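User: My notes are a mess, but here's the protein and manganese (II) ion's SMILES. Can you give me a structure?
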Amino acid sequence: MSFDATTTISSEFGIFGIPMSEAESRVILLPVPWEVTTSYGSGASFGPALIRQASEQIDLFDLELGKAYEQGYHMLPHPKEIKDLNDKMKLKAQELIGLITEQSQDETKMIKLRAEVNQASENLNEWVYSQSKRIIEQNKLLGLVGGDHSSPYGAIRAVCEKHPNEVAILHIDAHSDTRKAYHGFNHSHASIMYNVMMAPWKPQKLVQIGIRDFCEEEYEFIKSRSDIKTFFDMDVQRRLMGGEPWARITQDIIKELPDKVYISFDIDGLDPAYCPQTGTPVSGGYSPDQIYYLFNELARAGKKIVGFDLNEVSTGGVQPQEANEWNGNVGARILFKLCGWSVITNKA
Ligand SMILES: [Mn+2]
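Assistant: No problem, the inputs look usable. Here's the predicted complex:
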């Protein structure tokens, strides 16, 4: 099949090859091709297209998920208007980053560009919020597929408003994403968890794992908040090297969580061997198997996955058809597990 990132693939070739419509499906995946404020590697806006393409290779039969897929996973059509806005606004963001880097004195221009980018991010957040709300109100399970890590802000808001003060965000990421702003962008990928935890609808708790790249300001912010628990990767790796089993560490993570959990999964939380093209890779991190074990234990502990996102799966800047397919392959498998566990943990 020839492939165009903006093509709306018919339900006949739905995600994972599951031929079920939105109405028939339990899990609705919202694609958000957005990477306006990414500063380092680019290509995360192709994430949904890349994952969708790779998903066709996955066997639906899965030892731990059984036939959860029979309840239907449906990815909504690729939102071309969002991708177009992304492409337009990313140029403006790049221009601003360039001016900052060369220590430009053109304040007027920088203020204008920053305002335009911030406005576009707010519009995106509103769009994601209304789409997410629509999905949740139909009593369906929501999964957002980014995009960079700023994309799920509106989805997290919709889920938190639905379950006020009952949800914890389980945040898997190499980065803490608790910067106040980055390059003056209020809704940068590096600020998502700061913004979430400062919102009036904030979740009950933020539990972070994989974190191994953060600045001092972020560290101070984490420490200042009793509703944030961070399992720094250095501490976890030391425990593993000292001979502690991953099983015990996962229990410590689960103990921090209330019954309702929203999973925000930045693919760079994994070892970059599994996501070499992601925008800001950092050595260290987890294998997919460790994460699958954690998901399994979450379900066994009776936790309910009330929503999730998967973000920063990237082509590394090239078009999806030219991309290293390994990134989409791993991303699609992670997404399949997230869909399955969200169905299983929400069984009536
Ligand atoms: Mn992130």
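Residues 149, 173, 175, 177, 189, 266 surround manganese (II) ion (CB under 6 Å).
User: Great, I'll file this with my notes.
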